[in-house]
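Annotated sample (chain length 377).
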Amino acid sequence: MDSLDTFARTKLDALEAGSLRRRLTPTERGTGAAAARRGRVLVSFSCNDYLGLSHHPRVIAAAQEAVATYGAGAGGSRLVTGDHPVLGALEARLAQHKGAEAALVFGSGYLANLGITPALAGRGDLVVLDELSHACMWAGARLSGAKVLTFRHNDPADLAEKLAEHRPHHARALVLTERVFSMDGDRAPLGDLLGVAEDFDVWTLVDDAHGIGVVEDGPRAPLEMGTLSKALGSYGGYLCASRPVIDLMTSRARSFVYTTGLPPASAAAALEALVILEEEPARRARPLALARRFTARLGLPEAESAVVPVLVGDAQAALDISAALEADGFLVVAIRPPTVPAGTARLRVAFSAAHAEAQVDALADAVAALTGRASRP
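Output written by the structure step:
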């Protein structure tokens, strides 16, 4: 329809004018930290494969064996025909890893967050999110029909003030936050947040997508979700919780009940990756060590995770620096609003166990030259 195309073009023109239009760029990932774009091989610092396990021979072999045994797809919802045996084994291992009674695997981390909060909260209830929570946590909160509020980023005192004012007026309440924030790389003060939540009889959901396998030490929340697509190098999402909660999700989380089960290859790959990361503590420690090497060289605040933001501010300026880095042989994608707040466009630098120290140093020198920062040897 002409009106539909006109609407789309008008929106695209506005995005283009603000340097906010997104485009897909074909990218071939290779072993190590290699990525091929536009006919050139680059060193990628824009991948969430934090432990380099997506190309690990054991992980690939596990996926191939699962395909040969169970086929390429799950064939249906897990409650119908799609609950192949690898999923149960993966859930048992995830629960053990998290010190939880049980786990449930979803089709993705986004689907997990779409389903968890609405299964626990509804009209008359309260959901309070860290203001920088991931988009899927916001989506789940809004789908629940509960009253949705925010608290200042990583501020337990502000959370306590919000709960003191609003908690008495709601039957149930949840607090949503992340162990590692995906765009800033900082870590939530979970001990303090959990203490506040307990004082007000509030359930806490922690998104551990960017922490598992890298920086997941510290207290556990009663609801711990995450993804299989980052440090575990595969695809899918999960929730670890008590057995009654997991049983409830199996019946009431709509994004679990009404979607096809995770493919066998993805589940088997994630299971083998989880085994490897538990076997190799040095691999788990490497991304944070490299991130701290980078921040020290550029005089940035010490990295708290495998993610380091280099703030630029203007969206077009961030795109220009990203393009210049690509010309120098580095893939470092610019992150722009609405993924981050207006005026905080940035380079999001993600470190992997697959990176070499020399590659990290070379990137730091290139970023320094392009941003005017001093690079320290």
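Annotation: The two ends are 59 Å apart (CA to CA).
Annotation: The chain has a mean pLDDT of 96.
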